[in-house]
Amino acid sequence: MIRQLVEATTDPAHVHPDLAAHQAAMIERCPYLGPSVAKGLTIWSAFSADPDDERGLFKLLIWYAEQVRFARNTDGPLACRNVAIFGPKDEQAAQALMDWPTWLARNLYAPVQLMIDRFWIGVGRRPGTGKSLMPPLAVSFFMVRCGIARRDRLILSERPQQDIDLLKAGPGDDGRDVFASQLGQAPDDPTEAWGRLTTVFPAPARAS
User: Fold this and answer.
1) Most buried among 5, 32, 141, 168, using CB within 10 Å?
2) SS3 letters for the chain?
3) Model pTM?
4) Where are the domains of the chain?
C-alpha cells in the first residue's frame, strides 16, 4: 500500500537529510533546476511503497504530471515535482518497482512536453558515459517537469533518441487528455488503463 510521508516542501532535507546535498549537486549540472529551486518551484513530496505497488505509483505519477501541467500555466515552465519513494532498499528493487510506471507515464506525457524520470537508491546520476557524477542516492525518487529536448538528452539513460523524439513531437501542451489521445477514451481510474498501455508502449529494456 502506498502511504504519504511528506505532503509538499521546497526543502528536500525534510524528505531525507542527504537529498539537500544531492539537489545542490544536480543544480551544478542541470541549468533548469537552479532557477526552479531559486523561485520555489521545485516541490518535494514523499511516499512509502511496497514491492507490488507499481500501479499505485503509476496513478501517483499521473496526479503529479497533471499538477505540473497546471503549474506550468500558472507559474511557467520551471515547475517541477520530485516524489521520493521509500521502500526499495537497493537499485534492483527500485528498478523492479519504478521502471514500468515511469515508462508508461513518460510516453503518455512526452507529447505534451513533460519530462518524467526516476533516480534509484544507491546510484549517482549516469549520463551516456555511464560514469557516476554524484554520491549514491539515499532514497529513490521520481522527477516530473517540463521537457527541454536539447537539454534532456543529458539526463535520459534509456533509449534516449526515442524519448527526445517524443518530446519534440508534440505541439506543446494543447490541453489534451493524454489517455484519450492514446486510447480513445479516458479511464475513470488511471490504473484501469495499465494493461492496454503496456501493450501500446513496448517495454524498455529493463522493465518486466
Assistant:
1) 141
2) CCEEEEEEECCHHHCCCCHHHHHHHHHHHCCCHHHHHHCCCEEEEEEECCCCCHHHHHHHHHHHHHHHHHHHHHHCCCCEEEEEEECCCCHHHHHHHHHHHHHHHHHHHHHHCEEEEEECECCCCCCCCCCCCCCCECCEEEEEEECCHHHHCCCCCCCHHHHHHHHHHCCCCCCCCHHHHHHCCCCCCHHHHHHHHHHHCCCCCCCC
3) 0.84
4) 3-200
